């Protein structure tokens, strides 16, 4: 595995992105945030979950998409098809389902007047129906949301007409992950952190390896400092049309902690289906707010996802999910618990930075972000953002 | 869960029964409410036996652990909960981290 030692290597590969500072206004301007609702979040495919979240007919989950000012109901119909709907009753627009997840047995009934809907979103029951005027139930189902599935990940699109299919939107990422055995890893842990930070500040802070030796000096002392790669230069960067991935290699020189050394000897759970990895650690940013992180394990690989959900210009929810091969023994489960625990320590440190970065940006003491070559993926992200927003220096569509 | 009873080879760990906690939320709360001396004592008792404990537990499929092995399993999860406190931070808390309650586990 070759790690870059040549200076400013990536900007030579991607000269069209330039090398100048990036405006910070997009992370603090309320007006910009209002426009992001329409120009970004209603014009892109948004990951809202996985097919495994709703394995059986009638299973559903609800997503509060504050940034699009709507609540989305994703439900698997009796026919096995997963559909997305606005979670809004056809009668007088009451919010239909209040639970975060559940199973529809028979009908989903509105809390207001008990209008009922089946798992395909059709209106099936109206109390005192005879007293309505010309009511045609067949035309009063739930309002559909464009929904599609890529490698088991469920996406919705809230625009009137998506310009690209989901597969086209995923572009080179779809090729990279074609047939990847995500489904063989199970969701084991979910965390949510509500942060006083713009969603991009939180995402940008995660979207590089440069900070690891410094910000995580307590949780991983020495881990990210290699003799021939002191600053954890990236081993790979690929910038797609909308999305990006960067990779690092593991540090084989670092001494594990006593527990870490013991965990390394445990037999770990395996699916016998390695993930299609580029490095030892891959960080895929799926524009706008979804991240897939792949980790090379000793006997098998595991992955995590992040979703950054904007609430306001300076508030977001960072949603974190761990997906491990199914553990069959206590030892396997324990080794996963250990990895998860070490990573969660890091993420709790990261969350502090998201908020201290936002505080600094809010002061407007600085107007721009200065990015080094191994932060080119952040530059790329802001360029893609500008492609949609059209203010500063996007590439234009 | 004080007064826990453990399989015969591991009965020396019974005084640490309060660490046999089923959920991550409870284990985290236990770490955060314990002194470093209490954490260290628990770690010092269990860590030298961890390999043997795991070998014992691994005789069974995880979803068919016998009742008396269950608290032993929870103890190992609590050990992982305190491993960084003992081996890295020498403190029950992570340095420069958000308040633990804000890092919310979704069940």
Helical stretch tally of chain A: 9
Order of helices and strands of chain A: HEHEEEEEEEEEEHHEHHEEHEEEEHEH
Q: Main sheet of chain B, how many strands, which sense, barrel?
A: none
Tell me the count of domains of chain A. Answer: 2
Q: What do these coordinates show?
A:
- The complex is a heterodimer of chains A (397) and B (107).
- Chain A has helices spanning 9-13, 30-39, 166-170, 172-176, 199-206, 212-215, 258-265, 330-362, 376-389, and strands spanning 22-23, 45-50, 59-65, 70-76, 82-86, 101-103, 108-109, 116-117, 123-125, 144-150, 153-157, 186-195, 236-239, 244-248, 281-286, 290-295, 302-312, 315-324, 368-369.
- With 397 residues, chain A is of the alpha+beta class.
- Chain A folds into 2 domains: 9-40 and 180-389, Naphthalene 1,2-dioxygenase Alpha Subunit, Chain A, domain 1 (Alpha-Beta Complex), CATH 3.90.380.10; 45-162, Rieske [2Fe-2S] iron-sulphur domain (Rieske Iron-sulfur Protein).
- In chain A, the strands form 4 sheets. Chain A has a 7-stranded antiparallel β-sheet.
- In chain A, a hairpin with a 5-residue loop joins strand 8 and strand 9.
- In chain A, helix 5 (199-206) crosses helix 8 (330-362).
- The two termini of chain A are 36 Å apart.
- Chain B is an all-alpha fold and 107 residues long.
- Chain B is built from 4 helices and 1 strand.
- Helix content of chain B is 46%, strand content 3%.
- In chain B, 34% of the residues are buried.
- Chain B has one domain.
- The interface between A and B is medium-sized, with 36 and 33 residues.
Write the topology of this structure:
The complex is a heterodimer of chains A (397) and B (107).
Chain A: H1 9-13, E1 22-23, H2 30-39, E2 45-50, E3 59-65, E4 70-76, E5 82-86, E6 101-103, E7 108-109, E8 116-117, E9 123-125, E10 144-150, E11 153-157, H3 166-170, H4 172-176, E12 186-195, H5 199-206, H6 212-215, E13 236-239, E14 244-248, H7 258-265, E15 281-286, E16 290-295, E17 302-312, E18 315-324, H8 330-362, E19 368-369, H9 376-389
Antiparallel strand pairs in A: 1-19, 2-11, 3-4, 3-6, 4-5, 5-10, 7-8, 8-9, 10-11, 12-18, 13-14, 14-15, 15-16, 16-17, 17-18
Helix pairs in contact in A: 5-8, 7-8
Chain B: H1 24-33, H2 36-46, H3 50-57, H4 70-89, E1 104-106
Helix pairs in contact in B: 1-4, 2-4
């Amino acid at each position: 595995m070759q790690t870059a030692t040549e200076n400013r290597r990536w900007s030579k590969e991607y000269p069209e992105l330039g090398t100048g500072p990036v405006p910070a206004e997009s992370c603090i301007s309320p007006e910009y945030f209002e426009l992001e609702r329409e120009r970004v979040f209603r014009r892109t495919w948004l990951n809202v979950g996985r097919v495994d979240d709703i394995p059986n007919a009638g299973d559903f989950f609800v997503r509060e998409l504050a940034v699009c000012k709507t609540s989305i109901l994703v439900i698997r119909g009796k026919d096995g098809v997963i559909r997305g709907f606005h979670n809004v009753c056809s009668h007088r627009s009451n919010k239909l389902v209040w639970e975060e997840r559940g199973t529809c047995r028979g009908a989903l009934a509105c809390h207001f007047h008990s209008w009922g809907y089946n798992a395909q979103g059709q209106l099936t029951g109206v109390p005192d129906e005879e007293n309505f005027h010309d009511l045609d139930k067949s035309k009063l189902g739930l309002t559909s949301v464009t929904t599609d599935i890529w490698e088991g990940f469920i996406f919705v699109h809230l625009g009137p007409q998506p310009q690209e299919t989901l597969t086209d939107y995923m572009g080179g990422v779809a090729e990279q992950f074609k047939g990847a055995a995500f489904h063989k890893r199970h969701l084991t842990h979910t965390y949510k952190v509500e942060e006083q930070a713009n969603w991009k500040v939180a995402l940008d802070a995660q979207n590089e390896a440069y900070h690891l030796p410094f910000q995580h000096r307590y949780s991983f002392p020495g881990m990210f400092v290699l003799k021939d790669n002191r600053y954890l230069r990236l081993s790979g960067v690929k910038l797609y049309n909308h999305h990006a991935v960067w990779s690092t290699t593991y540090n084989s020189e670092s001494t594990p902690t006593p527990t870490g050394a013991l965990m390394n000897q445990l037999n770990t759970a395996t699916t016998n289906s390695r993930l299609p990895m580029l490095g030892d650690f891959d960080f895929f940013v799926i524009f706008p707010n979804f991240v897939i992180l792949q980790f090379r394990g000793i006997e098998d690989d595991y992955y995590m996802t992040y979703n950054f959900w904007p609430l306001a210009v300076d508030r977001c929810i960072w949603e974190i999910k761990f997906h491990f091969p199914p553990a069959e023994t206590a030892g396997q489960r324990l080794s996963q618990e250990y990895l998860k625990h070490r990573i969660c320590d890091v993420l709790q440190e990261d969350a502090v930075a998201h908020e201290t970065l936002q505080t600094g940006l809010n002061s407007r003491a600085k107007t721009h972000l200065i990015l080094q070559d191994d932060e080119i993926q952040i530059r790329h992200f802001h360029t893609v953002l500008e492609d949609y927003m059209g203010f500063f220096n996007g590439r234009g569509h | 869960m004080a007064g826990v009873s453990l399989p015969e080879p591991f009965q020396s760990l019974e005084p640490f029964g309060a660490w046999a906690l089923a959920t991550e939320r409870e284990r985290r709360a236990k770490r955060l409410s314990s002194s470093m001396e209490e954490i260290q004592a628990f770690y010092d008792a269990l860590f030298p036996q961890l390999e043997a404990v795991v070998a014992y537990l691994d005789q069974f499929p995880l979803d068919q652990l016998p009742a008396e092995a269950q608290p032993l399993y929870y103890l190992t999860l609590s050990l992982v909960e305190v491993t960084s406190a003992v081996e890295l931070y020498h403190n029950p808390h992570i340095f420069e981290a958000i308040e633990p309650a804000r890092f919310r586990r979704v069940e």
